[in-house]
């Protein structure tokens, strides 16, 4: 839950010439090095003796100065949170049909919605929680969300969810033990509060306090700025529609795999989970490929001082034609009931290509909109993506029932073909569009 304001704080220069507070130490000579050395323990600045900052660039309380091992522990803890959150989104999918039978759900839309409604939370949650994290810090939001997720998962009372519950509980306990606050403005606010209590100087305030917004301003910015960027920037809007459709296709596959492989190939509910291996391995490989290739593609032409953000889109340009090929492969091989490994191989290529479209698109938005608006641009993209991921899969059961696996997936492939020129268009004309349609943040 990052924001542009956070990036501004982190990138702002730090004044490292401390002086002591007059309330605590009395009158002092402005150029007295001895007085400054004594006041350095308070973390105050020469330019504003009531402004609280870090105790120099090597202050161990600053998370940027933590030891490598401590940083790694925090990364692992956050990775564990991400893991169980994504597992919770898809682990229920193979059992959705059994759920429908047990609770006598006859509507295919309702049965599918039991899986995809989880994604709707990805659209709404950040709009509310991101501003709160800037007011109260990151750590308390993690802890509260972990506890709420744990409590509601208990209420699901099925072993599929209890496996998630075990992961959620273990991760919540881990974060409670090892994680500490990392948000600089929140840490400096707490330091200022301690100093106000210790010195009796009510004027002391964190250096970042004058840059922080109140709750109403933060909530307004969290909702209005992403919408403003989507509506006023052709790049943000078209890219959001394209990537949202790709994301919706992924979740359409997630929700229809159980029907396809149980009815076509006779997979049991337990074995159906293995049908996701093709898609999952493709996604994992896409992460590796992106890590290896992304920065290499961002070469700078001779004489250029800044690399064009559009260079991030080369992977999308190359791989977008593979998406429809993957759907043709998957659909017609399943329609012909050839060996089950063949359609799973088709989904492997779908997984690689779609994620090598989704990941570069986010990096492109960050580079294109800069630190001031990157978080809002990404937020708008994620909201639209989550909405598509929630509602596009609802058409899956009726699509396959009406057209069959072959023509149903062919329809998705044809729509994907229509989107193939989009990355090339952005790669060639993206810079012109950014210059022609700037957004006033």
Automatic annotation (TrEMBL):
It is found in: Membrane. The chain crosses the membrane at residues 72-93, 105-128, 135-154, 160-179, 229-254, 274-293, 313-332, 338-366, 378-400, 406-427. Belongs to the major facilitator superfamily. It is a multi-pass membrane protein. Its main location: membrane. It comes from Petromyces alliaceus. InterPro entries: MFS, MFS_trans_sf. It comes from the Eukaryota. SUPFAM superfamilies: MFS general substrate transporter. This is Major facilitator superfamily (MFS) profile domain-containing protein. Residues 1-14 have a biased composition (Polar residues). Keywords: Membrane, Transmembrane, Transmembrane helix. GO terms for cellular component: membrane. The keyword Flavoprotein does not apply. The keyword Membrane applies. GO terms for molecular function: transmembrane transporter activity. Residues 1-65 are annotated as: Disordered.
């Amino acid at each position: 839950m990052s924001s542009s304001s956070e990036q501004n704080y982190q990138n702002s220069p730090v004044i490292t010439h401390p002086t002591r507070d007059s309330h605590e130490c009395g009158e002092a000579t402005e150029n007295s090095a001895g007085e400054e050395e004594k006041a350095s323990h308070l973390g105050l600045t020469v330019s504003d003796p009531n402004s609280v900052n870090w105790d120099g660039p090597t202050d161990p309380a600053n998370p940027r100065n933590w030891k490598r091992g401590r940083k790694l522990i925090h990364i692992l803890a956050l990775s564990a949170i991400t893991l169980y959150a994504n597992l919770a989104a898809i682990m229920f999918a193979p059992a959705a049909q059994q759920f429908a039978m047990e609770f006598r759900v006859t509507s295919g839309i309702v049965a599918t919605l039991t899986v995809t409604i989880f994604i709707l939370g990805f659209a709404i949650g950040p709009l509310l929680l991101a501003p709160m994290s800037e007011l109260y810090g990151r750590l308390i939001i993690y802890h509260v969300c972990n506890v709420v997720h744990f409590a509601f998962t208990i209420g699901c009372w099925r072993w599929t969810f209890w496996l998630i519950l075990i992961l959620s509980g273990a991760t919540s306990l881990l974060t409670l033990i090892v994680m500490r606050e990392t948000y600089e403005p929140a840490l400096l606010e707490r330091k200022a509060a301690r100093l106000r209590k210790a010195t009796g100087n009510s004027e002391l305030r964190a250096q970042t306090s004058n840059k922080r917004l109140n709750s109403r301003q933060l909530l307004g910015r969290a909702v209005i700025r992403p919408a403003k960027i989507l509506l006023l920037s052709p790049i943000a809007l078209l890219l959001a529609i394209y990537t949202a459709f790709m994301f919706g296709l992924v979740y359409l596959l997630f929700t229809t795999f159980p029907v396809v492989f149980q009815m076509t190939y006779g997979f049991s509910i337990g074995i159906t989970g293995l049908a996701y291996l093709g898609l999952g391995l493709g996604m994992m490989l896409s992460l590796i490929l992106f890590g290896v290739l992304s920065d290499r593609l961002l070469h700078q032409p001779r004489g250029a001082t800044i690399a064009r953000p559009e260079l991030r889109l080369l992977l999308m340009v190359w791989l977008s034609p593979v998406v429809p090929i993957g759907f043709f492969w998957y659909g017609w091989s399943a329609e012909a009931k050839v060996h089950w490994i063949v359609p799973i191989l088709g989904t492997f290529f779908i997984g690689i290509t779609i994620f090598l479209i989704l990941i570069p698109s986010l990096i492109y938005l960050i580079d294109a909109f800069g630190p001031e608006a990157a978080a809002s641009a990404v937020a708008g993209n994620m909201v639209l993506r989550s909405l598509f991921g929630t509602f596009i899969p609802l058409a899956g059961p009726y699509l396959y029932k009406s057209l069959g696996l072959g023509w149903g997936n062919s329809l998705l492939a044809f729509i994907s073909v229509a989107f193939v020129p989009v990355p090339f268009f952005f790669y060639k004309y993206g810079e012109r569009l950014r210059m022609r349609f700037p957004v006033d943040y």
